[in-house]
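quick one: nickel (II) ion bound model?
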Amino acid sequence: MRPARWRGAAAALAAGLLLGAASGCGGDDRWARPTASDTTQPHAVDVASVPGLETVARSEEDARHRLYTAYPAVPGARPLTERLAEAVDELAAPYRRAAASALAAAPGTSAAPGASVPELNVQWTLTAASGDIVGVRLTGWSSQGADAGESRRTYWYDGRTGQAVGSDGLVDGPSGLKRLADLVRARIVAKADPARVTPTPETFASMAFNDDGDLVVEFSDHSVAPAAPGRVAVALPASAFEPLLSDFGRRARAASLTPRPRLALGADAPGPGGPEGARTPADAPNCAVAKCVALTFDDGPGPDTPRLLDELNRAGVRVTFFVVGTNAAAYPELVRREAAEGHEIGDHSQDHRDLTRLPPIQVHAQIQETQDVLRQITGQAPVLLRPPYGASNGVVSDVARSLGLVQALWNADTLDWRDRDASAVADRAVAGARPGGVVLMHDIYGTTVDAVPQIIARLKAQGYTPATVSDLLAARHVRPGERFSGG
Ligand code: NI
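yep, here:
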Protein backbone atom coordinates (compact mmCIF):
# COMPACT_ATOMS: atom_id res chain seq x y z
CA MET A 1 0.00 0.00 0.00
CA ARG A 2 1.23 3.51 -0.75
CA PRO A 3 1.09 6.20 1.86
CA ALA A 4 -2.01 8.34 1.81
CA ARG A 5 -1.56 11.86 0.56
CA TRP A 6 -3.08 14.54 2.65
CA ARG A 7 -4.24 17.53 0.75
CA GLY A 8 -5.65 19.53 3.58
CA ALA A 9 -8.99 20.20 5.14
CA ALA A 10 -10.34 22.00 2.10
CA ALA A 11 -9.78 18.92 -0.05
CA ALA A 12 -11.50 16.70 2.49
CA LEU A 13 -14.44 19.07 2.60
CA ALA A 14 -14.61 19.15 -1.19
CA ALA A 15 -14.49 15.35 -1.19
CA GLY A 16 -17.66 15.15 0.83
CA LEU A 17 -19.41 17.71 -1.29
CA LEU A 18 -18.36 16.18 -4.58
CA LEU A 19 -19.31 12.68 -3.55
CA GLY A 20 -22.74 13.99 -2.80
CA ALA A 21 -22.92 15.54 -6.22
CA ALA A 22 -21.68 12.42 -7.97
CA SER A 23 -24.12 10.02 -6.39
CA GLY A 24 -26.99 12.27 -5.54
CA CYS A 25 -27.56 14.62 -8.41
CA GLY A 26 -26.79 12.73 -11.57
CA GLY A 27 -27.93 15.00 -14.31
CA ASP A 28 -26.73 15.11 -17.83
CA ASP A 29 -24.74 18.30 -17.73
CA ARG A 30 -21.93 16.47 -16.09
CA TRP A 31 -19.43 19.21 -16.53
CA ALA A 32 -21.41 22.05 -15.11
CA ARG A 33 -22.79 20.20 -12.10
CA PRO A 34 -26.47 21.03 -11.88
CA THR A 35 -27.49 23.29 -9.07
CA ALA A 36 -30.52 22.72 -6.92
CA SER A 37 -32.23 25.56 -8.72
CA ASP A 38 -32.11 23.78 -12.08
CA THR A 39 -35.58 22.29 -12.05
CA THR A 40 -35.07 20.49 -15.36
CA GLN A 41 -32.69 17.98 -13.72
CA PRO A 42 -34.46 14.71 -13.03
CA HIS A 43 -34.37 13.25 -9.55
CA ALA A 44 -31.47 10.81 -9.13
CA VAL A 45 -31.48 7.91 -6.68
CA ASP A 46 -28.31 6.83 -4.88
CA VAL A 47 -27.35 3.56 -6.60
CA ALA A 48 -26.09 2.21 -3.29
CA SER A 49 -29.71 2.09 -2.10
CA VAL A 50 -30.43 -0.80 -4.48
CA PRO A 51 -29.00 -4.04 -3.07
CA GLY A 52 -27.66 -6.45 -5.65
CA LEU A 53 -27.61 -3.90 -8.47
CA GLU A 54 -24.94 -4.80 -10.99
CA THR A 55 -23.48 -2.79 -13.82
CA VAL A 56 -22.96 -4.02 -17.35
CA ALA A 57 -20.03 -2.15 -18.82
CA ARG A 58 -18.29 -2.50 -22.14
CA SER A 59 -15.30 -0.72 -23.56
CA GLU A 60 -13.62 -0.87 -26.92
CA GLU A 61 -10.59 1.05 -27.99
CA ASP A 62 -8.28 1.14 -30.92
CA ALA A 63 -6.88 3.74 -33.24
CA ARG A 64 -10.23 4.03 -35.02
CA HIS A 65 -12.83 4.20 -32.31
CA ARG A 66 -13.40 4.70 -28.60
CA LEU A 67 -16.44 3.28 -26.93
CA TYR A 68 -17.54 2.98 -23.33
CA THR A 69 -21.07 1.98 -22.41
CA ALA A 70 -22.65 1.10 -19.12
CA TYR A 71 -26.13 0.34 -17.84
CA PRO A 72 -27.51 -1.18 -14.65
CA ALA A 73 -28.95 -4.65 -14.15
CA VAL A 74 -31.51 -4.28 -11.37
CA PRO A 75 -32.32 -7.58 -9.61
CA GLY A 76 -35.88 -8.69 -10.29
CA ALA A 77 -36.27 -6.41 -13.32
CA ARG A 78 -34.81 -8.51 -16.12
CA PRO A 79 -37.14 -7.13 -18.86
CA LEU A 80 -35.82 -3.67 -18.03
CA THR A 81 -32.22 -4.86 -18.24
CA GLU A 82 -32.97 -6.38 -21.64
CA ARG A 83 -34.57 -3.16 -22.85
CA LEU A 84 -31.53 -1.18 -21.68
CA ALA A 85 -29.21 -3.61 -23.48
CA GLU A 86 -31.21 -3.08 -26.68
CA ALA A 87 -31.10 0.68 -26.22
CA VAL A 88 -27.33 0.67 -25.79
CA ASP A 89 -27.00 -1.54 -28.88
CA GLU A 90 -29.15 0.92 -30.81
CA LEU A 91 -26.86 3.75 -29.78
CA ALA A 92 -23.72 1.78 -30.62
CA ALA A 93 -24.86 0.36 -33.97
CA PRO A 94 -24.43 3.45 -36.18
CA TYR A 95 -21.26 4.31 -34.36
CA ARG A 96 -19.80 0.83 -34.95
CA ARG A 97 -20.87 0.93 -38.61
CA ALA A 98 -19.09 4.25 -39.08
CA ALA A 99 -15.95 2.92 -37.41
CA ALA A 100 -16.02 -0.20 -39.58
CA SER A 101 -16.44 1.76 -42.80
CA ALA A 102 -13.64 4.12 -41.82
CA LEU A 103 -11.42 1.09 -41.33
CA ALA A 104 -12.52 -0.38 -44.68
CA ALA A 105 -11.77 2.93 -46.41
CA ALA A 106 -8.25 3.14 -45.01
CA PRO A 107 -7.20 -0.25 -43.65
CA GLY A 108 -4.03 -0.56 -41.70
CA THR A 109 -3.63 3.11 -41.00
CA SER A 110 -4.15 4.60 -37.61
CA ALA A 111 -5.54 8.00 -36.87
CA ALA A 112 -3.01 10.79 -37.02
CA PRO A 113 -1.74 11.95 -33.64
CA GLY A 114 -4.09 14.59 -32.33
CA ALA A 115 -6.86 13.67 -34.75
CA SER A 116 -10.19 13.26 -33.04
CA VAL A 117 -11.15 9.61 -32.89
CA PRO A 118 -14.89 8.86 -32.93
CA GLU A 119 -16.15 8.39 -29.39
CA LEU A 120 -19.30 6.96 -27.86
CA ASN A 121 -19.87 7.19 -24.12
CA VAL A 122 -23.07 5.93 -22.49
CA GLN A 123 -23.78 6.63 -18.83
CA TRP A 124 -26.79 6.00 -16.60
CA THR A 125 -28.56 7.22 -13.52
CA LEU A 126 -31.52 5.89 -11.57
CA THR A 127 -34.51 8.24 -11.64
CA ALA A 128 -36.52 6.04 -9.29
CA ALA A 129 -36.07 2.74 -7.45
CA SER A 130 -38.81 2.20 -4.94
CA GLY A 131 -41.59 -0.31 -4.38
CA ASP A 132 -42.20 -2.07 -7.70
CA ILE A 133 -40.96 0.81 -9.88
CA VAL A 134 -37.55 1.47 -11.42
CA GLY A 135 -36.51 4.32 -13.72
CA VAL A 136 -33.20 4.40 -15.59
CA ARG A 137 -31.96 7.36 -17.59
CA LEU A 138 -29.34 6.73 -20.28
CA THR A 139 -27.24 9.54 -21.68
CA GLY A 140 -25.17 8.78 -24.74
CA TRP A 141 -22.45 11.19 -25.77
CA SER A 142 -21.34 10.62 -29.33
CA SER A 143 -18.77 12.41 -31.39
CA GLN A 144 -17.87 11.69 -34.99
CA GLY A 145 -16.02 14.30 -36.96
CA ALA A 146 -17.93 17.55 -36.66
CA ASP A 147 -21.04 15.84 -35.30
CA ALA A 148 -21.20 15.73 -31.55
CA GLY A 149 -24.06 15.58 -29.15
CA GLU A 150 -25.85 13.76 -26.40
CA SER A 151 -28.89 11.57 -26.67
CA ARG A 152 -31.20 11.04 -23.71
CA ARG A 153 -33.62 8.23 -22.97
CA THR A 154 -35.38 7.18 -19.82
CA TYR A 155 -36.84 3.71 -19.38
CA TRP A 156 -39.16 2.55 -16.64
CA TYR A 157 -40.01 -0.80 -15.14
CA ASP A 158 -43.42 -1.71 -13.79
CA GLY A 159 -43.08 -4.59 -11.34
CA ARG A 160 -46.86 -4.99 -11.31
CA THR A 161 -46.96 -6.07 -14.96
CA GLY A 162 -43.35 -7.23 -15.16
CA GLN A 163 -42.76 -5.04 -18.20
CA ALA A 164 -40.29 -2.38 -19.30
CA VAL A 165 -42.05 0.85 -20.21
CA GLY A 166 -40.87 3.71 -22.39
CA SER A 167 -41.17 7.26 -21.11
CA ASP A 168 -44.37 7.69 -23.10
CA GLY A 169 -45.88 5.08 -20.75
CA LEU A 170 -45.99 7.76 -18.07
CA VAL A 171 -48.67 9.51 -20.10
CA ASP A 172 -52.22 8.33 -20.73
CA GLY A 173 -52.27 7.10 -24.32
CA PRO A 174 -51.87 8.96 -27.63
CA SER A 175 -54.30 11.71 -26.63
CA GLY A 176 -52.32 12.37 -23.45
CA LEU A 177 -49.12 12.55 -25.46
CA LYS A 178 -50.71 14.98 -27.90
CA ARG A 179 -51.80 17.29 -25.09
CA LEU A 180 -48.38 17.01 -23.50
CA ALA A 181 -46.76 17.99 -26.80
CA ASP A 182 -48.95 21.10 -26.88
CA LEU A 183 -47.88 22.03 -23.34
CA VAL A 184 -44.21 21.53 -24.12
CA ARG A 185 -44.31 23.45 -27.41
CA ALA A 186 -45.72 26.50 -25.68
CA ARG A 187 -42.86 26.44 -23.18
CA ILE A 188 -39.87 25.86 -25.43
CA VAL A 189 -40.85 28.00 -28.38
CA ALA A 190 -37.88 30.27 -27.80
CA LYS A 191 -35.24 27.57 -27.86
CA ALA A 192 -36.58 24.89 -30.15
CA ASP A 193 -38.52 24.32 -33.34
CA PRO A 194 -42.07 23.59 -32.10
CA ALA A 195 -42.86 21.71 -35.31
CA ARG A 196 -40.33 19.08 -34.31
CA VAL A 197 -42.06 18.39 -31.00
CA THR A 198 -44.16 15.59 -32.43
CA PRO A 199 -46.40 13.59 -30.07
CA THR A 200 -44.50 10.34 -30.61
CA PRO A 201 -42.75 7.95 -28.19
CA GLU A 202 -39.45 8.64 -30.02
CA THR A 203 -39.64 12.38 -29.40
CA PHE A 204 -40.79 11.94 -25.80
CA ALA A 205 -38.17 9.29 -25.05
CA SER A 206 -36.83 10.86 -21.86
CA MET A 207 -39.26 11.84 -19.13
CA ALA A 208 -38.84 11.65 -15.37
CA PHE A 209 -39.65 13.70 -12.28
CA ASN A 210 -37.53 16.29 -10.53
CA ASP A 211 -37.03 16.61 -6.77
CA ASP A 212 -40.26 18.62 -6.50
CA GLY A 213 -42.32 16.08 -8.44
CA ASP A 214 -42.52 18.23 -11.56
CA LEU A 215 -42.47 16.34 -14.84
CA VAL A 216 -39.13 16.80 -16.62
CA VAL A 217 -39.34 16.43 -20.37
CA GLU A 218 -35.99 16.48 -22.12
CA PHE A 219 -34.86 15.95 -25.67
CA SER A 220 -31.76 14.63 -27.34
CA ASP A 221 -29.36 17.18 -28.78
CA HIS A 222 -30.36 18.32 -32.28
CA SER A 223 -33.74 16.56 -32.12
CA VAL A 224 -36.05 19.51 -31.52
CA ALA A 225 -33.51 22.31 -31.96
CA PRO A 226 -31.35 21.34 -34.92
CA ALA A 227 -29.60 24.68 -35.10
CA ALA A 228 -28.84 25.15 -31.40
CA PRO A 229 -26.44 22.94 -29.52
CA GLY A 230 -27.14 21.70 -26.02
CA ARG A 231 -29.93 20.25 -24.02
CA VAL A 232 -33.53 21.34 -24.41
CA ALA A 233 -35.62 20.46 -21.38
CA VAL A 234 -38.65 21.70 -19.57
CA ALA A 235 -40.12 21.08 -16.11
CA LEU A 236 -43.91 21.07 -16.03
CA PRO A 237 -45.72 21.77 -12.76
CA ALA A 238 -48.09 19.16 -11.41
CA SER A 239 -51.12 21.35 -12.11
CA ALA A 240 -50.29 21.21 -15.81
CA PHE A 241 -49.40 17.56 -16.33
CA GLU A 242 -51.26 15.62 -13.66
CA PRO A 243 -54.43 15.11 -15.73
CA LEU A 244 -52.28 13.62 -18.51
CA LEU A 245 -50.57 10.95 -16.45
CA SER A 246 -51.36 7.27 -16.83
CA ASP A 247 -51.89 5.11 -13.75
CA PHE A 248 -48.30 3.99 -14.12
CA GLY A 249 -47.19 7.61 -14.42
CA ARG A 250 -48.84 8.44 -11.11
CA ARG A 251 -47.16 5.47 -9.42
CA ALA A 252 -43.80 6.37 -10.98
CA ARG A 253 -44.13 9.91 -9.69
CA ALA A 254 -44.87 8.67 -6.17
CA ALA A 255 -41.89 6.28 -6.35
CA SER A 256 -39.62 9.14 -7.49
CA LEU A 257 -40.66 11.27 -4.53
CA THR A 258 -40.19 8.60 -1.85
CA PRO A 259 -37.73 10.04 0.67
CA ARG A 260 -36.19 6.65 1.54
CA PRO A 261 -36.51 4.55 -1.59
CA ARG A 262 -36.57 0.81 -1.12
CA LEU A 263 -37.06 -1.60 -3.97
CA ALA A 264 -39.39 -4.53 -3.39
CA LEU A 265 -39.30 -6.62 -6.55
CA GLY A 266 -39.07 -9.92 -4.75
CA ALA A 267 -35.73 -10.86 -6.26
CA ASP A 268 -32.87 -12.41 -4.43
CA ALA A 269 -30.24 -9.76 -4.07
CA PRO A 270 -26.75 -11.13 -3.52
CA GLY A 271 -24.53 -8.18 -2.80
CA PRO A 272 -20.87 -8.28 -3.66
CA GLY A 273 -18.83 -9.45 -0.75
CA GLY A 274 -15.47 -10.86 0.08
CA PRO A 275 -14.41 -13.88 2.06
CA GLU A 276 -13.98 -13.70 5.78
CA GLY A 277 -10.62 -12.60 7.03
CA ALA A 278 -9.08 -10.96 3.97
CA ARG A 279 -5.37 -11.53 3.87
CA THR A 280 -3.00 -8.78 4.73
CA PRO A 281 -0.84 -7.56 1.86
CA ALA A 282 2.33 -9.53 1.42
CA ASP A 283 5.54 -7.57 1.31
CA ALA A 284 5.81 -5.86 -2.05
CA PRO A 285 8.26 -7.51 -4.44
CA ASN A 286 11.53 -5.72 -5.06
CA CYS A 287 11.26 -5.08 -8.78
CA ALA A 288 14.80 -3.72 -8.94
CA VAL A 289 15.84 -7.33 -8.49
CA ALA A 290 12.87 -9.52 -9.39
CA LYS A 291 11.59 -10.01 -12.94
CA CYS A 292 8.33 -8.17 -12.34
CA VAL A 293 5.37 -7.69 -14.64
CA ALA A 294 2.37 -5.59 -13.65
CA LEU A 295 -1.11 -6.97 -14.33
CA THR A 296 -3.69 -4.21 -14.65
CA PHE A 297 -7.48 -4.41 -14.83
CA ASP A 298 -9.47 -1.44 -16.10
CA ASP A 299 -13.03 -0.17 -16.21
CA GLY A 300 -14.45 -2.03 -13.19
CA PRO A 301 -15.47 -2.97 -10.69
CA GLY A 302 -18.11 -5.22 -12.19
CA PRO A 303 -20.03 -8.42 -11.50
CA ASP A 304 -17.00 -10.62 -12.30
CA THR A 305 -14.60 -8.74 -10.05
CA PRO A 306 -15.29 -10.87 -6.91
CA ARG A 307 -14.32 -14.00 -8.84
CA LEU A 308 -11.11 -12.31 -9.97
CA LEU A 309 -10.31 -11.29 -6.40
CA ASP A 310 -10.85 -14.88 -5.23
CA GLU A 311 -8.44 -16.09 -7.90
CA LEU A 312 -5.79 -13.48 -7.11
CA ASN A 313 -6.13 -14.35 -3.43
CA ARG A 314 -5.59 -18.03 -4.21
CA ALA A 315 -2.52 -17.23 -6.29
CA GLY A 316 -1.16 -14.73 -3.79
CA VAL A 317 -0.89 -12.09 -6.51
CA ARG A 318 -1.46 -8.35 -6.17
CA VAL A 319 -2.52 -6.30 -9.17
CA THR A 320 -3.57 -2.77 -10.03
CA PHE A 321 -7.21 -1.90 -10.70
CA PHE A 322 -7.93 1.28 -12.63
CA VAL A 323 -11.50 1.89 -11.65
CA VAL A 324 -14.12 4.17 -13.20
CA GLY A 325 -15.55 6.55 -10.58
CA THR A 326 -19.19 5.83 -11.45
CA ASN A 327 -18.57 2.07 -11.13
CA ALA A 328 -16.75 2.57 -7.83
CA ALA A 329 -19.83 4.39 -6.53
CA ALA A 330 -22.01 1.45 -7.62
CA TYR A 331 -19.70 -1.12 -5.98
CA PRO A 332 -18.11 0.54 -2.95
CA GLU A 333 -17.81 -2.81 -1.15
CA LEU A 334 -15.83 -4.28 -4.02
CA VAL A 335 -13.47 -1.32 -4.09
CA ARG A 336 -12.99 -1.70 -0.36
CA ARG A 337 -12.28 -5.38 -0.85
CA GLU A 338 -9.73 -4.67 -3.59
CA ALA A 339 -7.90 -2.33 -1.24
CA ALA A 340 -8.25 -4.58 1.81
CA GLU A 341 -6.71 -7.50 -0.08
CA GLY A 342 -3.61 -5.53 -0.92
CA HIS A 343 -4.34 -4.53 -4.49
CA GLU A 344 -3.56 -1.11 -5.83
CA ILE A 345 -6.37 1.16 -6.98
CA GLY A 346 -5.77 3.73 -9.68
CA ASP A 347 -7.91 6.52 -11.09
CA HIS A 348 -9.52 5.82 -14.47
CA SER A 349 -11.65 9.00 -14.43
CA GLN A 350 -15.23 9.52 -13.38
CA ASP A 351 -17.09 8.75 -16.62
CA HIS A 352 -14.47 7.19 -18.91
CA ARG A 353 -14.52 10.11 -21.33
CA ASP A 354 -11.64 10.71 -23.72
CA LEU A 355 -9.96 13.44 -21.66
CA THR A 356 -8.12 14.92 -24.64
CA ARG A 357 -11.42 16.26 -25.96
CA LEU A 358 -12.43 18.07 -22.79
CA PRO A 359 -11.57 21.57 -21.62
CA PRO A 360 -9.13 21.75 -18.69
CA ILE A 361 -11.75 22.36 -16.01
CA GLN A 362 -13.60 19.22 -17.05
CA VAL A 363 -10.41 17.17 -17.20
CA HIS A 364 -9.73 18.28 -13.67
CA ALA A 365 -13.26 17.38 -12.55
CA GLN A 366 -13.08 13.92 -14.16
CA ILE A 367 -9.90 13.07 -12.28
CA GLN A 368 -10.48 14.91 -9.01
CA GLU A 369 -13.97 13.48 -8.50
CA THR A 370 -12.68 9.94 -8.86
CA GLN A 371 -9.87 10.71 -6.42
CA ASP A 372 -12.48 11.97 -3.98
CA VAL A 373 -14.83 9.00 -4.46
CA LEU A 374 -11.98 6.55 -3.92
CA ARG A 375 -10.67 8.41 -0.90
CA GLN A 376 -14.13 8.29 0.60
CA ILE A 377 -14.40 4.54 0.00
CA THR A 378 -10.90 3.36 0.88
CA GLY A 379 -9.51 6.21 2.97
CA GLN A 380 -6.76 6.69 0.44
CA ALA A 381 -6.53 8.59 -2.83
CA PRO A 382 -4.81 6.90 -5.78
CA VAL A 383 -1.34 7.95 -6.89
CA LEU A 384 -1.80 6.64 -10.43
CA LEU A 385 -3.96 7.93 -13.26
CA ARG A 386 -4.75 5.87 -16.32
CA PRO A 387 -6.47 8.23 -18.75
CA PRO A 388 -9.29 6.40 -20.58
CA TYR A 389 -8.06 4.91 -23.85
CA GLY A 390 -4.56 5.90 -22.82
CA ALA A 391 -5.39 9.23 -24.44
CA SER A 392 -3.33 12.03 -22.96
CA ASN A 393 -2.11 15.49 -23.87
CA GLY A 394 -0.54 18.51 -22.23
CA VAL A 395 -3.69 19.38 -20.31
CA VAL A 396 -4.08 15.86 -18.92
CA SER A 397 -0.40 15.82 -17.97
CA ASP A 398 -0.68 19.19 -16.24
CA VAL A 399 -3.74 18.10 -14.24
CA ALA A 400 -2.07 14.80 -13.34
CA ARG A 401 1.00 16.68 -12.16
CA SER A 402 -1.07 19.11 -10.11
CA LEU A 403 -2.79 16.20 -8.38
CA GLY A 404 0.44 14.27 -7.82
CA LEU A 405 -0.48 11.47 -10.21
CA VAL A 406 1.80 9.46 -12.47
CA GLN A 407 0.13 8.56 -15.77
CA ALA A 408 0.23 4.79 -15.90
CA LEU A 409 -0.16 3.40 -19.41
CA TRP A 410 0.77 -0.08 -20.68
CA ASN A 411 3.03 -1.81 -23.17
CA ALA A 412 1.03 -5.01 -23.68
CA ASP A 413 -2.61 -4.86 -24.76
CA THR A 414 -4.54 -8.13 -24.52
CA LEU A 415 -7.39 -6.71 -26.67
CA ASP A 416 -9.66 -8.67 -24.36
CA TRP A 417 -12.67 -6.53 -25.31
CA ARG A 418 -12.48 -7.73 -28.90
CA ASP A 419 -12.82 -11.49 -29.02
CA ARG A 420 -13.77 -12.49 -25.46
CA ASP A 421 -11.81 -15.72 -25.71
CA ALA A 422 -10.01 -16.72 -22.53
CA SER A 423 -7.19 -18.63 -24.28
CA ALA A 424 -6.56 -15.82 -26.74
CA VAL A 425 -6.45 -13.32 -23.88
CA ALA A 426 -4.02 -15.52 -21.96
CA ASP A 427 -1.81 -16.03 -25.03
CA ARG A 428 -1.59 -12.30 -25.69
CA ALA A 429 -0.95 -11.47 -22.04
CA VAL A 430 1.91 -13.96 -21.81
CA ALA A 431 3.33 -13.10 -25.24
CA GLY A 432 3.22 -9.39 -24.43
CA ALA A 433 4.80 -9.65 -20.99
CA ARG A 434 8.23 -8.02 -20.63
CA PRO A 435 10.38 -7.59 -17.54
CA GLY A 436 9.17 -4.37 -15.93
CA GLY A 437 6.21 -4.28 -18.33
CA VAL A 438 2.53 -3.51 -17.86
CA VAL A 439 -0.27 -5.73 -19.21
CA LEU A 440 -3.69 -4.21 -19.95
CA MET A 441 -6.86 -6.20 -19.22
CA HIS A 442 -10.43 -5.42 -18.15
CA ASP A 443 -12.20 -7.05 -15.22
CA ILE A 444 -15.60 -6.22 -16.72
CA TYR A 445 -15.27 -9.30 -18.95
CA GLY A 446 -15.90 -12.77 -17.56
CA THR A 447 -13.60 -14.30 -20.18
CA THR A 448 -10.74 -12.15 -18.96
CA VAL A 449 -11.31 -13.35 -15.42
CA ASP A 450 -11.40 -16.91 -16.79
CA ALA A 451 -7.97 -16.33 -18.34
CA VAL A 452 -6.25 -15.09 -15.19
CA PRO A 453 -5.31 -18.41 -13.54
CA GLN A 454 -3.44 -19.59 -16.63
CA ILE A 455 -1.86 -16.17 -17.17
CA ILE A 456 -0.45 -16.21 -13.65
CA ALA A 457 0.68 -19.84 -13.90
CA ARG A 458 2.41 -19.31 -17.25
CA LEU A 459 4.09 -16.06 -16.18
CA LYS A 460 5.36 -17.64 -13.00
CA ALA A 461 6.67 -20.60 -15.05
CA GLN A 462 8.70 -18.05 -17.06
CA GLY A 463 10.18 -16.62 -13.88
CA TYR A 464 7.96 -13.56 -13.67
CA THR A 465 6.76 -12.02 -10.43
CA PRO A 466 3.29 -10.52 -10.94
CA ALA A 467 3.21 -7.07 -9.34
CA THR A 468 1.37 -3.78 -9.10
CA VAL A 469 2.31 -0.75 -11.16
CA SER A 470 3.56 1.01 -8.06
CA ASP A 471 5.79 -2.00 -7.33
CA LEU A 472 7.42 -1.31 -10.72
CA LEU A 473 7.63 2.41 -10.06
CA ALA A 474 9.35 1.88 -6.73
CA ALA A 475 12.43 0.80 -8.70
CA ARG A 476 12.30 3.82 -11.01
CA HIS A 477 12.15 7.58 -10.99
CA VAL A 478 8.93 8.70 -12.57
CA ARG A 479 7.57 12.07 -11.49
CA PRO A 480 3.91 13.06 -11.15
CA GLY A 481 2.46 14.09 -14.50
CA GLU A 482 4.92 11.93 -16.43
CA ARG A 483 3.79 8.91 -18.41
CA PHE A 484 4.94 5.42 -17.63
CA SER A 485 4.19 2.54 -20.00
CA GLY A 486 6.36 -0.12 -18.43
CA GLY A 487 9.28 -1.94 -19.96
NI1 NI B 1 -10.77 1.97 -19.90
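DSSP finds 14 helices and 18 strands in the chain.
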